[in-house]
Design a protein that fits this description.
With about 250 residues, the protein is α+β, with helices and mostly antiparallel strands. Helix content is about 55%, strand content about 20%. A 5-stranded mixed beta sheet has the order 2-4-5-7-6, with helices on one face. Helix 1 packs antiparallel against helix 2. Bound molecules: adenosine-5'-diphosphate (ADP). Adenosine-5'-diphosphate (ADP) binds next to helix 4 and helix 6. The site of adenosine-5'-diphosphate (ADP) has 22 residues, from helix 4 and helix 6.
Length: about 250
């Protein structure tokens, strides 16, 4: 009460001005990341294309040349994927990511992702579902989410350890679980893994080829579809990512 109303008003104005400046700075940063990613992605995609074409067409490369070209191609490809992920997150931040929501039978989609993984990674992926489960989702986005989670299950477990995709209905919601019996995640890291660029063990994770953006994108996509994602895990025993969607 000791403050005159004009002082309070002034304070509110200053606060609003600070907020608006902060928002402008954040928006500029988002634009910058988006523009840089876009400008780099195009030429780098050309580089990857040429390197792969040289590798395919050359029959007389010595061991050094072969290895150098393969490393260059895979690192450039990894960077293209990083730029794609950054573009996707910048799009999400700007609120311009659109979802084509429809009522989907999840069983088919889950089976499709399991089949693709088995084909490309040579790993056994078991689907468990006792009934047909439907949910509201954007088909392509949900597929992207599942591929990301199953890819991680493959990366962070040994080849003989099973990967299971479970489908069920709970409290009028659809639940998809992606379970692995791999290295697991320590309790204190379990919320942090959804942050951008966060990786549990930098050295070990780097060998797996990602940049720590996969789960940040998964969370953004799932929440964009009105769902949620959590993880349950024990180091040395494995991890289960639990995806809940509206029906
Ligand atoms: P990355 O590209 O590093 O895989 P993600 O965002 O997909 O990035 O995952 C972030 C981190 O979470 C990973 O670096 C890894 O340490 C941990 N992680 C993700 N999935 C699993 C899993 N299924 N088992 C164990 N650790 C995992």
């Amino acid at each position: 009460l000791r403050h005159a109303p004009s002082e309070v008003k002034e304070l509110a104005q200053t606060f609003n001005m600070m907020l608006s400046r902060l928002f402008d700075a954040w928006e500029q940063q988002r634009q910058f990341v988006s523009n840089v990613s876009h400008e780099l992605r195009t030429p780098l995609t050309v580089v990857v294309g040429y390197l792969q074409s040289v590798l395919r067409r050359s029959t007389n490369l010595n061991d050094y040349q072969q290895e150098a070209l393969e490393t260059a191609a895979s690192e450039a490809d990894r960077t293209v994927r990083l730029l794609q992920n950054l573009l996707e997150l910048a799009r999400a931040d700007s609120g311009s990511m659109h979802f084509q929501m429809e009522s989907l039978v999840l069983n088919d989609l889950v089976a499709e992702v399991a089949g693709m993984t088995e084909k490309f990674s040579d790993r056994l992926v078991t689907v468990k579902a006792s009934t047909e489960i439907e949910a509201m989702a954007d088909r392509d986005r949900l597929k992207q989410v599942l591929i990301n989670l199953v890819d991680n299950a493959v990366k962070y477990s040994e080849s003989e350890q099973p990967i299971i995709l479970k489908l069920e209905r709970a409290n009028r919601q659809a639940v998809i679980q992606v379970c692995d019996h791999g290295i697991g995640i320590p309790l204190q890291e379990q919320t942090r893994i959804f942050e951008r660029f966060y990786r549990v063990d930098e050295a070990r994770s780097r060998m797996s080829g990602g940049h720590g953006l996969g789960l940040a994108i998964v969370k953004t996509l799932v929440e964009g579809m009105g769902g949620s994602i959590t993880v349950q895990s024990k180091p040395g025993q494995g991890s289960t990512f639990i995806l809940t969607l509206l029906t």
